[in-house]
What does this fold into?
Amino acid sequence: MRKLRAIYYTDGACSGNPGPGGWAYVRLRESVSGYKTEVESGGKESTTNNEMELTAVYKALVKAYKEGIKQVTIYCDSTYVVNAITKCWLLNWKENEWKTKEGNEIKNKKIWEKMYKLVYECGMYLSLNKVKGHSGDPLNELADRAAVKAKVKYGG
It folds into this structure.
């Protein structure tokens, strides 16, 4: 049986930085009849926007991994998250014992460590693409609305 691929649109939201925040992903999965969609979200009472953006991508990858899907495409409007993968910051952080080039511990270290395992140790093929936020992309807008709704649930 052929493993299908999964496509996700992710977003994070935060009121204040730190403050209450939410994350969300919209999942598109190929099936014999086209695409199936689902939205998942969550949040925290005290967080940052970057942590929520990263959490959305991480949760999408975990969902795919649990279902045995190894080919994952993610559309994300976070430069922070996209650059960490596409510009090899994540590999460098791991190599430098989770420190920046200035010697400071990276922010969101625990999530990045788990992300590293999924992306580089579990054989997942990840295509991470930057999309412009709030530009009318319907699936990015849906992810944004779900993240904002989750944020409100946590006091934002």
Observations:
- The chain has five helices and five strands.
- The chain has a mean pLDDT of 92.
- The CA atoms of residues 126 and 137 lie 21 Å apart.
